[in-house]
Amino acid sequence: VYFFFIGKLFKSEDLTDFVRFFLMFYKDKPIDLLLGDIFQVKMCNPGETPEKCAERNKQIRIRYKPSLFQHVGIQSSFPGREQYSK
User: Which residues are in the MGAT4 conserved region domain (predicted)?
Assistant: First the structure.
């Protein structure tokens, strides 16, 4: 699951945990992919099925379709891919 990182809003009380997590793992994955990992760590209970965690995640996270923001520029998180604005 990919949680693209354009235009995300967070509670200020969560930012310290996010920054610490990103600083630990930014060399392993792009930040937008790490976002899914930190949500799993923060919201899933040990031993809980991935399906149950995903369902709770859907209920908690707010999503807008179509996206409120669009990518600007060419740089992409995916190696070898150029992302042009729409």
Answer: 5-86
Rounded CA-CA distance 3/36 in Å is 6
* Residue 29 and residue 37 in contact, taking contact as beta carbons nearer than 8 Å: yes
How confident is the model at residue 83, as a pLDDT? 61
**Measured between alpha carbons, how far is 74 from 30 in angstroms, rounded to an integer?**
16
At residue 65, does pLDDT exceed 90? no
> Would you list the DSSP string of 6-63?
TT----HHHHHHHHHHHHHHTTTS-HHHHHHHHHHHHHPPTT--HHHHHHHHHHHS--
| pLDDT greater than 70 at residue 85 | no
Q: Is the dihedral of CA 46, 27, 24, 20 positive or negative?
A: negative
Quick one: how far is CA 28 from the chain centroid?
Answer: 15
